[in-house]
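Subject: Predicted fold for Dihydroorotate dehydrogenase electron transfer subunit, 256 residues

User T.R. writes:
Posting the sequence so we have a shared reference for the thread.
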Amino acid sequence: MFLEDCEIVENKKISEDKYILKIKSKEAFKHIKAGQFFMLKSSTYLRRPISVHYVSNEEIEFYYQVKGEGTKYLSTLKERVNIQGPLGNGFDTNINNKKVLIAAGGMGIAPIKLLIEKLTNNNNNITLVMGGANKYALNIMERFNTNNINLHIVTDDGSVGDKCNAVEKTNEIIKKEKFDIIYTCGPTIMMNGIIKIALANNILCYASLERRMACGVNACLGCNVEVSYDNKTVVLKKACSDGPVFDAKYLWIKNE
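User M.O. replies:
I've generated the structure tokens; pasting them so everyone works from the same file.
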């Protein structure tokens, strides 16, 4: 874990309340895994946990949504920002020549760009289901390289792609094709549906969870995740240190 005061290269609004923050890092960028996050300093407020969107050379990109005073403050920064990380356990990308399905929706799109690059570099066949409320929610896709993946865009209102949700599209695809692994990140209700599909079809599934957190380092105990290793007894894990990525078959979320 590193603490760095970083130069801001770009802090650009790309839709009504969503931004891309690109910073210059001296050391932290070397140690990032897809699915990890940083705690970004936000004035006098608590640091905000923001997923890594992409890493290139010495630059780290974050894709974030303005939801409160802390992220509103982040959106005003122009020169420098203090970061803490990388934190958490990311996605397992140490796989080769597998058939992979990625299902992402809403702000769960944030860690997917780097995940795709890592998996593509290992010669995996990737199908991506990307969901949003409307076409504006998917403006971030302009920054994705989708040349070597099977892309399925879905929106709630049908303004771009198919008019359905990510769970419905994933279920449709799974009925026609076999996959070795599923990765998912997005709203709880969406991931719950994806996890059920994976379990029903005996497919290994990794889910990246979002939780409110104040510290990011397993100190505040505010980001509890319920898991069960025997499908009976529930134990608490921490999204910041045990996650945010979990083997979905252990998540108690599947029984909600």
